[in-house]
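On clarity, I found the account of how folds are encoded harder to follow than it need be. An entry of this sort, consisting of the sequence and the corresponding backbone structure tokens, reads as follows:
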Amino acid sequence: MPPLPEKKKLPVAQLAIGGVLLAVAGIVVLRTVGIAQLVAWIDAFIALIRDLGPWIFFTAMALLPAAGAPLMGFNLVAGEAFAARMTMPGVIVTVALMIALNLALTYWLARYALRPLLRRLVERYGYSVPRTTPDNALMVALLVRLTPGPPFFFQSYLLGLAEVPFRLYMIVSWLAVLPLALSAVVLGKAAREGHFGKIFTVIGVMLLAVVAVQVVRKKLVKRES
């Protein structure tokens, strides 16, 4: 199987400096506006989302991540904004469906509608499109989805450009993203309600999912090597 794409590496010093700057910025914001004011802003934002209604929110969730909007942001807001109206199981099912629609959209854009443009964009950022065959398509899909670093939408475009079969792409991608996505839905609501037991439980599940993904990825890489 051809080598999978490798992203351009940032110097460790830059990452460290960036992390320190973000931490300092967070401290400055908290000291300036106060926790109470920050919570008030979050409540106002959630209220605005709630007033827009689930149709607009979930339509945006299906479409905007294809343009680079962070999917995690939608996940964290969905439960708190709409659980009262749709019930928490209803929100979870809807989030899962919107993720599936987004996956289908990004695949269609990458494989058909915007293929030349997206191929140039991928190569500009130092990636090469892996070649897939019936024998290696599953391995390519798994390794791309389980590789940390590239954003979710970027992985989707990469797999679409690689012409991974649609059914295989959907199954692998959907199952790869659901554990963290649905955990984030529960986490967002628990955090706003102050249920610390549930918060720590969900965070623990998310950490276990991340560790499990990396263990599986290392085994796959070792197998291919």
